[in-house]
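Thread: quick sanity check before group meeting

JM: Hey all, I'm pulling together slides for Thursday and realized we never actually wrote out the predicted structure for the chain we discussed last week. Dropping the sequence here so it's in one place. If anyone has concerns about the input, flag it before I start.
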Amino acid sequence: MSANRLVQQLDATDLTILRLLQQDGALSNPKLAEQLSLSVTPCWRRLKRLEGEGYIKGYQANLDRRKLGYDVLAFVRLGFAVHTDDAPNRFEQIIQAYPEVLSCHKITGDADYLLQVVTVSLDSYSDFVEQVLRKIPGIHSIHSSLALREIKASSRLPLPG
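JM (edit): ok, ran it. Output follows.
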């Protein structure tokens, strides 16, 4: 379903709820209702519907990785030698267990997967590559790019309105 058709299923109030919660996921229902000029109960119902229909997948705080000691941010492109066996599927299951992997995407181009990985140091990143990635069956190539400076990082989706 295209983004435009998906958004057409939502009215302006729904989109405003999503926009406000992307800005502040800790916004209480009474505060949200106040900003929408709605009473608390209808606001709560809309919020529960958006959650139930999967528009809102969860709530989390955005943490500062550097203040928490995660100084290395790496983008890792992985390639598999053979795509006809079960190795990529096993990889997708295995990689779920590693909290250092912030995201994993199956991609097009010269690699099969793109990972976003955080670690506390270059040594710990090296250990992750050697002790985890190199031991996963089927991986043929590993190419890392380390972030020198973060210009923009967001998980907020561009909503119309």
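AS: nice. The chain has two domains: 3-52, 72-146. The mean pLDDT is 93.
JM: adding both to the slides.
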